[in-house]
Amino acid sequence: MTCLAGRRGHREGHLGSPPRPGDGLGCGPALDRGRASGADRRLPPPLGRGAGSAALGPSGWEFKRGILRAVMRPEHLSFGQDRHPSHARSDPLRAGLGILFVLRIRLTFDLPPSPVNPSTLRRTLLATLVVGTLWTPGAAQRTRQAPRLGPNVLVIVLDDIGTDKLEFYGETPPTCPGAACDPLLNCSAPASGCAQPYARTPNLDALRRGGLWFDKAYAMPVCSATRAALQTGRYGTKTGIGNITSTTSQAGDYSLPNSEILLAELLRDGFLGPAKRAVGRPYSSGAFGKWHMTAALPADYGHAVANGYDRFYGVIGNVTNHFRFTQILHDKGSSILTEKIDGRFTTPPYEVDTYQASLTTRDTLAWINDQTSSFFAYVAYAPPHTPVQVPPLSLLSTEMQCELACAGLAPGNSLNPLTEPPELLKLVYRAQVEAVDAEIGKLLAGIPAPVLENTTVFVLGDNGTPIFLVDEPPHVANHGKATVFELGVRVPMIVSSPLIPTPPTNDGWRSSALVSVTDLWLTIAELTGANAAALKPLSLLDSISFLPVIADPLNSGSRTTIYTQTFLPNGILPLPQPACYSLNRRAVTDGEYKYIRAQASVDATPCGTATYTEALYYLPSDPEELTNLITLGLTPDQQQRLQILSAEMDARSGA
Q1: What's the domain range around 603?
Q2: Would you give the distance in Å from CA 628 to the centre of its chain?
Q3: What is the pLDDT of residues 153-177, one digit of tens each?
Q4: Of the residues 521, 553, 585, the one at which a domain ends
């Protein structure tokens, strides 16, 4: 392993410039990181509120891809100051080939006919044909993405952002009236008990306005368990990841086994036929940002590339400072390099050149824009996970900059969740969410339009809001992250894709279909045409494709129950008796009733006798899960529902 100490913290030129021989900054061989050379890529100005399909023109190709144009319009982009590169005029030859490409994708999907309204499907297919006819990227991009390529996939993971923290879900009223920040007339730290719940997220808002967003999407209670389930399409009882993987660098810490088939391996090997001969288009895969599915030993730094990714640039687990951390730089076939990031020594200090989320965006863009084949990019931003730390001001709106200044806070300032006032913690958390939203805007804006138009984007949370940031009232604080209550496991999920029909309103398509984080695995397989069954027997998966919902948002989907769990210790395989765990919280819901079984205690004997607490909630009238129906006495119908959900839990994880 080779160290590239301090390159980012002292560089004045472009972020991606490799160290020059003799420049005194490197302590090992230079690495061509694949970033664009020369001047910085110019990024677009902010994406404004209210952007969406209503702001779009009526032309035919905009009809199908409202969200993609929404995020590309100059007035609709992130809080950064750069501009999107111009694109050349259209190419009729590629337009004709686009028709054949879209038809092939429709045939590959093999959507089940029964749950799809035939007239809706016909309208969708007709609209898709129109899009294929008029899909005419610029001549300058002809060698970048040929029409024969399969659809690109971009997965963006949000860290510690629950549905209660995004305004378009509308779950958390403010605890005091909002007032415009004025540095002269209205400038002070937030009053005690006064907190605004929502960050400004114009880029996420634009995505859902032009796409599809889910209000019953579920993850696991903590981040490592969710990431492992997403990557494998399997629950933690099969992978061994039921809680966070250790970041203490202790020998023997458990990591996601290499025997699992990760998404990158699915998209690499899912196109191989007999004798390992390619029968389709293998994908290039890159992972960027926070990994957190292994221990934190140097031997674990190569885990992503060892499991199918062509590149991993990011951090192995949680960081203690979003401006000071060790960045791992690993390309397939190359040595693992590390880079010490330190934002104290830049001018000005604590800016985007050393901010973890900003580096994740720039590393992702450099790799995507260097691809000539279909790609899968996995992007996991570390903020707003702790530390609660003020991000660079250049990523923030003027209103947020004013609020921070009035509270006496500057970039790089970190707040201790155990000692700082909740109002200040929530203010800085909102700033972090706003900064990540701005980086998402930069990421989408930096991808050339023809490439983005051939890309399906998934955005989802890894778990709910941390307990110390939950707004109480109206919510219950100890129902947040690390629990199996709704606040801990129901997460934001947005999909933007050229396959989604144009939303009927400026509010996007809102779906109540049940979706598990495990479902992305099989959904991506069907989207790309990868042969999942050739790699893993489908009976061993916990994944159900929701591609039919993407193609027809009125489809209710195929999933009937959601299962979620957190347990300790990690790595107990094969499936043990539940009493072998020191922590075991489980929940199953059918979207209406929710059954929770939590381990209360276990005796001193290993794998001894455990006791449990049980609860049954009716979510439509009790979304905060306050009334345990079991304690009130169950009706015959409720008793039957409890038996069904309890049996489902036993089948997934034991009695």
Answers
A1: 564-653
A2: 32
A3: 999 999 999 999 999 999 998 878 7
A4: 553
